[in-house]
Amino acid sequence: MSDVQILASVQQFMARQHGHFIQGEWVKAASSERIHIINPATEQSVATIAVATKQEVEAAVQSAEQAFHTVWANTSPYERGQKLLKLADLVEQHAEEFAQLESLTTGKLIQLSRHLEVAQTIVFLRYFAGWATKIHGQTMTPSIPSMQGEQYTAYTMRQAIGVIAGIVPWNFSLMIGCWKIGSALTTGCTIVLKPSEFTTLSLLRLAELAIEAGIPAGVINVVTGAGQTGQYLIDAKKIKKVSFTGSVATGIAIGQRAMCNDLTRVSLELGGKNAAAICADADIDALLPTLLQATFVHQGQVCAAPERFFVHQSKYDEFIEKITVAMQQIKMGSPLDESTMFGPLSNKVHFEKVKQYLEMAQNKQQVICGGKVHAGTGYFVEPTLLKVTSVEDPLFMEETFGPVVSVITFEHDEELISMMNHSRFGLTASIWTNDLAKALRLIPKIEAGSVWVNMHTFLDPAVPFGGVKASGLGREFSDAFIEDYTELKSVMIRY
Ligand code: NDP
User: Where is the active site (predicted)?
Assistant: First the structure.
């Protein structure tokens, strides 16, 4: 097979001298500094982006603040929902364009870009659109004593908090960007997005389409850059909430800074070292395709994906034998080739980080399968399985955020739970068993925001998502996000 044909519209978009998207239009960058967007499969520059100055970031926040007060707050919930639906329609019409932009800049397989990133972006936008008309308060009957026949009633209302700062990571820039856009716009907030400097293009394209969808100028703004752009954004006075997805260290730094900025709200979706427990009764042949897909989707660069396998000792030999055979069949290649099963890591910085973990594993002779770095062009590493004998092993403690998974055995459930919870992270976990009673007994004991049974790495807009411990703060999706984007106002009336 060969690479898909790059659309003329994609080539034209990449060739543009992109500025920032503020107040519904392109703003030429004040600084001449440019960042190259690198295709991780070829190591070639495919586009450049601007680096925002403090003044440009503040102009974007000012635009969002103005749009919040003058337009978006006066737009009816129904209208807000309709405009998000229209945006989803436009993403659908331009689906191949978005898929190619994502694959060219992130190394994501073209089939994954099409069928997960872009397809799910549309699903999530439509889901969020539905919430616009369903956000409401409650009525209460106060118990204040009535002295002279007066009566009291009370109610609550949910009001949009204002301008959101959305800091978007590089692994699923379009989809995660749209989680932030959808949450903000449906609740009546406006947003300034700061995409990752590695994968900026699809959100810039989306901002243009938002205007076509009838979303008023200033409701969605995008500023680009690296180094200080994120900090300029969260320091801007009118930011009411920061929604960040990324590493634990940066999340904590952002949280501290936001608290100092007059208690700006934060929601943090951070890393994980997620556990998958394969129980004694599990059918290895039946679970392997699903487990492998969940583990190595987008080369393991998924915060929810498993990186720690706990295998019951009675199943260990069978598991290792069968997973090794299956992993050796994973075909690595160009992400733009529809037959490729495994692409490159998304950027050089991340590639160097994963390489260090692989070297550590090689030195300690822990590699069961994979472990090698591709010698040629591109940020390719093999899907890798490592054996560990202690839960204190750094390879079992630290998030690689790559296609590197470690395996350990367990004998009984108490030991399993104790080992699974021996982590600073708590994003996701899975149990692989046909014994429903066992699963139901284990689930409450697992320290994780999401627990799956016989599946892993599946997100659905109807199901809340977020981490416990160092994996995050707050929840996305379902009705759980509403509290983060709205202020609850209490009203009491004497009559
Ligand atoms: P980071 O977690 O460091 O986040 C980078 C983003 O945060 C950039 O947009 C950056 O913008 C912004 N930022 C950094 N510091 C601040 C600050 N003090 N205030 C405001 N914004 C700030 O991600 P990396 O891309 O460096 O990836 C590092 C690791 O993060 C990966 O190896 C992986 O482990 C993890 N990760 C987790 C993801 C997840 O889904 N949970 C997704 C992607 C990565 P600027 O430079 O302009 O400040």
Answer: 269
Residue 401 alpha carbon, nearest atom of ligand 1 = 34
How far is CA 149 from each of CA 141, 144, 146, 154, 492, rounded to the nearest angstrom?
Answer: 15, 12, 6, 17, 16
Residue 53 C-alpha to ligand 1 middle, in angstroms? 19
Q: How far is the CA of 36 from the centre of ligand 1 (A)?
A: 18
Whichever domain contains 12, its CATH number is: 3.40.605.10
Query: Torsion-angle region of residue 2: left (phi > 0), alpha (psi -120 to 50) or beta?
Result: beta
Closest-CA residue, ligand 1 atom 4, reads 246
CA distances from residue 97 to 11, 25, 141, 174 in whole angstroms, order as listed: 10, 20, 54, 12
Task: Give 280-319 pLDDT, tens digit per residue.
Answer: 999 999 999 999 999 999 999 999 999 999 999 999 999 9
Catalytic-role residue among 58, 102, 117, 269? 269
Instruction: Give yes or no: residues 477 and 449 share one domain.
Output: no
Residue 362, domain member (yes or no) = yes
User: Rounded to two decimals, what is the model's pTM?
Assistant: 0.97
CB atoms within 10 A of CB 235: 19
Residues 131 and 153 in one domain: yes
- Indicate if 67 and 122 belong to the same structural domain: yes
193-226 pLDDT, tens digit each: 999 999 999 999 999 999 999 999 999 999 999 9
Residue 398 annotated among the catalytic residues of the structure: no
Torsion of the alpha carbons at 117, 121, 122 and 127, rounded to the nearest 10: 140
436 & 487 share domain: no
8 Å CB contact between 158 and 149: no
- Is 107 within 8 Å of 402 (Cβ atoms)? no
Q: What are the pocket residues of ligand 1 if the criterion is a CB atom closer than 6 Å to any ligand atom? A: 167, 169-171, 194, 196, 225-231, 234, 245-247, 250, 253-254, 257, 269-271, 303, 350, 353, 399, 401
